Amino acid sequence: MKKINLLTILSIISVLAIGSIFGYTKIVQADNTLQINTTNTVKTAKILHFGDMMLDRNVKKRIDKFGADYPFKKLAENNFLEGYDVVTANLEGPFANKRRATSKSIAFRFDPKLIPTLQKYNFNLFTLANNHSTDMSMAGFNESKANLKKAGLDFYGQQIKIDDTNLLVKQVGDFKIGFIGIDDTITKINIPKVKKLIQKAKDNGAEIILANVHWGAEYKLISNTRQRQLGHTLIDAGVDIIVGHHPHVVEEMEIYKNHPIFYSLGNFVFDQYFSVPTQQELGVSLIITQENDQKNVSITIYPLQSIQSQISQMNQKNKDKFFADWIKRSRLGDYKFENNNLKVSF
Fold this sequence. Notes:
nine-stranded mixed sheet, 2 domains, alpha/beta, Purple Acid Phosphatase, chain A, domain 2, 346 residues
């Protein structure tokens, strides 16, 4: 048997050390030839994001008539809702145990029995920071959180104030992500308090910060000055990705300092049948990766349509028309979508 000299041993140890730093290393000895294969470790998180989900009023009537699967079953075809670490939406109302009297002219209450249906379609995270979360009073809001928690669903955000409940730091795939839910429609957002949440998220290990912001004016296809200023301020404060809600229509996208801002994804499940824009929606796939110190977000846009509160992907003709109009309204700088996909790095 041939002896391996000291120089060979030291060489192998050096390769192993380098591999432990930069990624996975495999060493194979065959026919007296040393083969070394090294690949970098890539971290990944997969998120599918939708707009406003409302399960009361005419949506409830259709669910009562056609079954709890009615809003989602067409969208779920071809495994569309599968393969993600997180499937999420803005929960525009509480899963309260009972309907309560209220002075609000529009007040929603969702049947807690619908929660298993959401789980069936892989929804596992919700922002509660909106102007309908307390429609059934704070008691109903607390019941809703208890019902979600009992089912094992995560949530974050509220509309009354900004405190620790507006933040959730959650393991998503290979990343720890800080989710922040804040509402600007009732009380204007307090930026110093949001900055404290961002810092707390990072102190708790968050590598990415995603903020859901309830803001803007209803039924406007373009964000207003307040939204744009607030969006830029949040990015400057350390937020990586912003997803907006409330206008009930799809607003434009902006890339600001290499960070994506979706000003409004529009409705998701709703009953606003009175116009085309309120029944056009966006689903957004965010595939977050990191190799060495470089973080990337691969964004895929899915134009959706709602017909009598049943969601499906648009046909190709409508998709192309919608996408072209949306791109014209958006501010992407030097970035460009190819096949509804765009990649940003930060």
